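tool=predict chain=A
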Amino acid sequence: MSSVRVFAPATVANVGCGYDVLGFALYRPGDEVAVRLTDSGKVTLDQVEGDDGRLPLDPEKNTVSSVVISYLEHIGSKQGVGISLHKKMPFGSGLGSSAASAVGGLVAVNEIMGRPLDRSELLPFAMEGERLACGNAHADNVAPSLLGGFVLIRSYDPLDVISLPVPGDICCALVYPHIEIPTLAARQIIRQNIPMSGAIRQWGNVGALVAGLYRDDLELIGRSLEDFIVEPVRKMLIPGFDGLRETAVANGALGFGISGSGPTVFSLCRNKTCAEAAAKALVSELAGNGVASTSWVSKINSEGAVVLK
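tool=predict ok
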């Protein structure tokens, strides 16, 4: 095997109440990474498409190549590798763009090297890619993109990631308003001190959301998505946020929230038909407010990143 292509999916992080500890993978959108063996003895970034020239071509500074460099150093290999990155998702969208790039690169290079590490062992490298991208090595995007499904990060030190069950027909409507919110900026506006009353309500929602997933209780999942800590601040960056929530719920959504740092919003729905209706209504409302948007409808992706034939 001299070359490998991998699709790494977008993700919804935080999932309302679970800031930095909850996330799930989608079937679309996502990024594609191709890796080939070379005789150069170095990691090179041969091609980047779909970024409008915004990403650095220096292998040490680009997320996809920096994690590959760290991976090869870890397994003690001096193998030359050439990387092509095809960005197929928007920047600053709250859909884990940098995470998908890092995960795609890691899964591809691990595959071409004969899979010496399992997926869980790749996770710390992907987290360091997030540190390079936004200054914080959080796992709520990279873990679901890498492992698939719905994940809970119980602890960062030591790292402890738990895969959660997903109700069979649950579907997600995603709407990305065409504005950009850089992840670093979105993190900087979060309050560092929160009232105990808000924290207690948040802890209750996280526990109830996990319970809802295990019990296949859609109503419990829906009423547990409320975020009392991060959303009240971040929603100010998204035009007409409260009206969008009302529209999503009126069209049958179980719950509504901000995907990652935004501006993409997500609606969890009991099936694909409901998700499609919610997405269409949200796009229409944003258009009425003069904001163009893009929508996707996806079930929760249980596979994570996949090697393409």
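The chain is about 35% helix and 25% strand. The first helix runs from residue 63 to 74.
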